[in-house]
Structure formats: structure tokens, C-alpha cells
Write a structure and sequence with these properties.
Helix content: 55-70%
Number of strands: 2
Oligomer: single chain
Radius of gyration: 20 Å
Order of helices and strands: EEHHHH
Strand content: under 5%
Distance between the termini: 19 Å
Structural class: mainly alpha
Length: 111
């Protein structure tokens, strides 16, 4: 603990919330998860576009399963707009990557 100008002790400097999120999301395990999810999304979108409009493709189920539980926050049949499908997937991916990164930091920290 350091002393302030008035001579009173100041608490140790705490990390800001955004810095903590950045450090947690850039752990190797979180980056591997996010990279795999990007590859899965690219495959699912390409597979969906490649099918004829009258032929149903269930490829978008895999990115939704990879980002559970938040990816099921909004059912995809509510609207025709792609944001209804992609927003919960992206939110779920960020939350899951944060949890994975936090676990990585806790398990690899030396105490």
C-alpha cells in the first residue's frame, strides 16, 4: 500500500473493468474458442446460402449449440431480420469466451 499526498494509505490500484475483459478475452483458450466459432459460422452461412431457397438447411443450429445458453434468448422465427438470429449468437459467444478466459486465468495463475 502506498501513501497519498496527505499521508493516508491508498488502496492498491485496481484494474478497470474494460482492461479485465480485454485480458480475459485474449487468453489462448478464449481465442481458440472464438476462432472455432468464427469458422463454424462461416461454414454454416456458406452451407445455408449454397442450398436452394426451398430446401431447408439446418447448418445454423451448430453455431447456436456452440453458444448455449444465451443463443436461445430470442427464437429465430420471430422476424425475418438476420439480427434476430445473429445477436444472441454473438452475445453468447462473448459471454462464453469470457467464462472460458476467466477459467484459464484462474487455473494458470500462480499463487
Amino acid at each position: 500500500m502506498s501513501l497519498s499526498a496527505s499521508g493516508s494509505p491508498t488502496p492498491p490500484e485496481r484494474r478497470s473493468f474494460l482492461r479485465t475483459v480485454r485480458v480475459t478475452l485474449t487468453t489462448p483458450s478464449a481465442l481458440i474458442y472464438l476462432g472455432g466459432l468464427v469458422a463454424l459460422l462461416i461454414w454454416a452461412i456458406a452451407s445455408t446460402v449454397a442450398h436452394a431457397p426451398d430446401d431447408a438447411s439446418l447448418a445454423m443450429i451448430w453455431p447456436m449449440l456452440a453458444t448455449l445458453p444465451l443463443s436461445l434468448a430470442a427464437p429465430p422465427m420471430l422476424s425475418e431480420h438476420p439480427a434476430v438470429l445473429f445477436a444472441p449468437i454473438l452475445l453468447g459467444a462473448l459471454v462464453n469466451a469470457y467464462v472460458i478466459g476467466w477459467c484459464h486465468r484462474v487455473l494458470t495463475s500462480e499463487r
